[in-house]
Queue: 3 jobs
Job 1
Amino acid sequence: MALSLAISPCPNDTFVFHALVHGRVPGAPPVEVTYADVDVTNTAAERGAFDLVKVSFAALPWLLDDYHLLPCGGALGRGCGPLVLTKGDRTDLTGATVAVPGDRTTAYLLFRLWAAGKPPARIEVVPFHEIMPGVAAGRYDAGLVIHEARFTYHRHGLTALVDLGEWWEADTGLPIPLGAILARRGAVDPEAAAGWVRESVRQAWADPAASREYVLAHAQEMELDVVDRHIGLYVNEFTADLGEAGFAAIAALLDRAADAGLVPQTSSSRATAWTS
């Protein structure tokens, strides 16, 4: 039977999963893939909609009863955090309306931790591609953005009020945990799934040109330079293996958020090992 997989159309996901999606991973089943923004997959995973799914680390407290966290394939790193963008000379978010890409995204959870004690007046959940144009047009006072927006926001005449990745790294010394890969309990052997994903990552690095056409076909930002910078930033050593630092970053994010009353308390063992 085919394996149902949900990932984003972003270059890092299509680069990582090219081999698996195209049947190039020995021993892996055929794959039926759905492309959706992470706020959509966060919600779909709550319904158990996919066998393998890319979600926000911030959504794990609602998902780990039904899914295993895989130790590979996701998005963590340094220097790759979400940005809060504004137009003009705004120096804080007092009285501001802020557009965010999803209420259970890691970006929004980091924003809430950063803005504790000084929250904006209003939050609006907005499709990601509408955030920068909306801030530029004055529909929102600020916008929370991720991924390729790091490389393109200046084209909209916007400035970065804060880099939440820099804030997180300075405060914790840990990488930024952004997106996780989950395997549905009872439907997918997590050890086997981790092996398939790692082999797909290995092939992506061994022959980057093999996935180029596929990556560009799904990229919202088609410029080769931006696509290459996106992949270079988000596909890194943590993609192959979360490792001690990666698991520590996940635990720190969820523990801090739970202590602040922003997410349910999560068992540390469930959040740090696919075997749990």
Note: The chain is about 40% helix and 20% strand.
Job 2
Amino acid sequence: MKITKKVPKFMMVLAASAMILSACGKSDKEAASTVKETKTLNLLTWEGYADPEFTKAFSEKYGVKVNATYFGSSDELLAKLKSGGGDTYDIISPSSDVASMLIDSGLVEEIDTEKIDSFGDLNERLRSLQDVQKDGKTYGMPFTWGPDYLIYDADVIKEEPTSWSTFWDPKYKGKVSVWDDISNIYLVGQIMGLDKKDESAIYNMSEEQLQEAKKKLLELKPNIRKYWATAGELNDLFANKEVVMAVGWPLTVEAVNAKGRNLKWTIPQEGATGWIDRLMIVKGAKNKANAEKYLNYISTPEAQAKVAKVTTYGIANPKAAEFMDQNLQEQTYVNNMDDMFSKLNFWQPVKERNRYNEIWTEIKTQ
């Protein structure tokens, strides 16, 4: 009897233990599942391209946490992407000078444009550019675009500069800033008039032309206060009255003037370069489904209007004008994109990019 009484107790203990173990096992699986199913989206992008003003609505709609890593130049993007790839990033925002390189290197995924409801509404010229097309496939969605302006402090420089050559005027010694980037070589190519007949010429300069550009940029060094690395750094240089003119983007004019300054911009007679930033999905992205949802969301008119409000850059969807006030429409050329396009030489792939970088490094270190 004692035995028969003890057996049920023993069995009850075993059963209870089994239930506990089963519950623990289930809990572990649920925890693992929860970790696995945590919704995230990792962006490797330019400053301003992951602002809560426009990412918040996406996060709330899909329950996805948006994480952002920023880069300050196309070459920094390439370096970060090659070191991290799809294990680290899901979406990148390359400019038009490196987009085709990313495709040829197999670093990005094909984009299924059928999953982007507003794709057909995007500006035709922007969405049909061939640098993101290969073998009939599309690898990039246009996001923003804009000019490399000559920005100046109108409280100091009373008359609008008409030429980039004003950067070299001795009276502005230590008062000029240019971006820490090879695009300065493009700029000097424009000053040299190389792109008058062939826009691609400044992106494919001969060694002799590169040496001439190098000489010109070395002559500029006495006037350089600092080579700015980020838009925020340039904003501070103007806000603190350390510089009176620079190469910069629309975001700087808006941000600094909001603090009471009087910056203005111009496109000099030699012209100006411009950039088109795409959104691309990284090859092997761990959160590809979320990346596709984001492309669909961020291309809508309302989301694009929010992007324009934050950055004051041109955006890809002209229907965004419905959600923008008149001033913002004028700032971003949303109703007349083609007119501004005609004034800019948009960045193109640089075949000898390593050589351009070598020249730029030599300029900075001499």
Note: Residues 1-37 have pLDDT under 50 and may be disordered.
Job 3
Amino acid sequence: MEQPQVHISEVGPRDGLQSVKATMPTADKCRWIDALAASGLREIEVGSFVPAKLLPQMADIAEVVRHAITLPGLTVMALVPNRRGAEAALAAGVHKLTLPVSASEAHSLANVRKTREQMLTELREVVALRNERAPAVPVEVGLSTAFGCTLQGEVPEDEVIALAVACAQAGVDEVGLSDTTGMANPAQVRRLFTRLRAELGTRAGAAHMHNTRGLGLANCLAAHDVGVRNFDSSLGGLGGCPYAPGASGNVVTEDLVFMFEAMGVSTGVDLHKLMAAREPLRAGLPGEPLYGMTPAVFAT
């Protein structure tokens, strides 16, 4: 089978579910992940290993991982904020770890209650643990608020790149850029990803764009224009930082697949099956609004 030209990582079961008030039942989560994998998505961020009292939506993460790792050909990824989370994730059998490191100091303190420097220390500890216990498991970082922060405002590009280099020096396999607040524009995306790729080469990671101001797809296309081939997105645009009324959070997976396939860029994802994956999502989160512009014809 021909390799897809772009790699799409579905982050809805983590980024999406932790952003909504309701908690999706475990059986529904597993059915949803099954449907996502059946569409051809080869990587899914299935949740985060954080204390249940902080995020009750993720209390069943070990059980969800144990189910997801039985699906053939699927890379099962989970977010871990520290060494303790990484220990639990590796024990559950995840294939890939991702850590939240903020480019904005203000966001870092608000999000993980640690400075950027303290998160680099956490990162080194997680990498050391991985090297000792599961050397085949990649560790990646998506730099949050890389394009701007609602708490701090502008995030200097030199600081973003310096932090990305520091993460790579800490032993991370891949460093991507995340537009956590949806503040990015295409020119900025081209500029930062060009610099990131020049500094890190093959360790430059995914574009994680949000659609808060309606530029999510345009920013993904801008990243693709300068050589990015890995993209994060969420089915139905679930989750993210929807600070603007009526605006969705994450880039909608269905729209991203539609755009690339319409351009003749293969994703390896069957759009009809991807649209069908909305049904178990609706069943598990009744009443939760879903977004997307892809014509309903693909849902038949």
Note: Confidence is low (pLDDT under 50) at residues 242-247.
